[in-house]
Amino acid sequence: MEKYGYVDIQEMPLGSQFFRRKTEDFLAANDLRLEGVDLYLTVQDSEGQILAGGGLQKDIIKCVAVSQKARSGGFAAPLVSELIARGMRAGYKSLKVFTKPGNESIFESLGFRTLARAPKAILMENGQGGLEEYLDYLRSVSGVGGEQEGQRRGAIVMNANPFTLGHRYLVGQAALKVDRLFVIVVAEDASVFPYSERLKMVQEGCAGLANVTVCEGSAYQISRATFPTYFLKELSDASSTQMLLDLDLFAGKIAPALGVSVRFAGSEPGDALTAEYNALMAKVLPGYSIEFREIPRMATGASPISASAVRQALEEGSLRTAASLTPASTHPYLIAHLACRALNMELDAPLKPGLVCPGVNGAHDDMDYGLMVKSIAALRPYFAKVASLGPMCSREDLVSLGKEAEEAMLSATGGVNTHQGAIFSLGLMAAFMSSSSISHFALTLPDTPRTLQWQALGVKGPLALAREGYKALFTDWLPHYRSVKKEEYALQKTLVRIMSSLDDTCIIRRKGLEVAKQIKQEAEALCKNFSAEGLSQLDKTCCSLGVSPGGAADMLALTAFADSLEIV
Question: Does 162 sit behind a cis peptide bond, omega within 30 degrees of 0 on the bond before it?
Fold first, then answer.
């Protein structure tokens, strides 16, 4: 065995096909597979051969291996120590590793402790806080060890992506069977609705059930998204191994912290993996002295209510269908999702004259696609809050939330005004869904110096459009969009139609009235004889003049949003 006097740890540039293949070959020689990692560190010999390697994905160490010839060289300890240091510098107080049971003693010697085990995998953790910190939280909300001992307690673990009438029915039925019920929301952000929204949906949806406590989630609900499979010889073992680890962790750690003796789940007629998980719970949990109760799924007609059906309705742009499957407390989050969907539809449409598109910055030198994506994500909580205001919302409420949204946008974009117009117009539309009319809100908003400037120029600015209830939207743009909706260039055709009639204050403010009139005339001509070539030519004109029709882009998003809300 070659002796190594020091350990030189290098980060492998996995973006290079050569180095990625080299890493894959190294892991394959050690019966492992390369999975998604944020970074991969290696120890190499003088000829560039990998002797040891290990990866880090967020707070999970994975793909750790030492070559056969180097296993007495002492490389594992410094390698894992460096991975731990990288994780700590990234802000994680504790790190986890999923590995083969045979590696338990190796990681124990490096300061890891075992949290859960299954026949083909174990979960270990090091550092401070971690699982014990989460268990302390659960004990604090459950009162275990206090005067409430002796109660029959149950638990439900749910993703609620989003929270449906079916979820509410499950919670209600389970709550009838126990003295106290704990609902744990899966915390990982691998869903259409982010964890922060799902937690609020469950909390609001369960309000009024006196014996129900909604618990925050954690990284200790092991899901298909977080469970790595790089060390399993057969990928077919992945789902059952993940489920067994998750159940061991729940039954051995989480249930005792809550004093839980029964776990509930809804029946699963559609998803094979969830049905397998239910069957496994029925088989495994009694071994931990925990009863499993499966409650028949709530249905509408012959179809069970499911979160996937709600997501499908949202994907198709149908608030009516999605709302029919969810409680009223979920509706603001559906509206926020559809607002962001509309903004993303506008952003993702190619060949938009002068505007940011995928891979194209249009006439902008301060915006790109990635920046716009960040901006849209930052606005999502704002739309949900506006849609939650209800019929009693005031001008002060709207102004305050609008300022909050602008601050979030500017923070996400480094000070670039990407969606100020959309904050106003789509925000009013979201508020309209919980009240009486768009113009009702707009009439309460005061004139600004810029509004007076537009009036002096004979231009309908954003506030004037809102005060007339977006008349052109409902009489022209939306009907047109619906008439071409199934065509290849539906969004672009609608955009050009909007450009042909809108006083685009984004253009006027930057380039003046004459340029704005020129663009309107060219858009009108393209409307009459639309073609991809004509669209491309209008884009060239806009870019050469430095013109970005941002007002029209906002109205295009508003049109798509109104279409999905199905209000006319």
Answer: yes
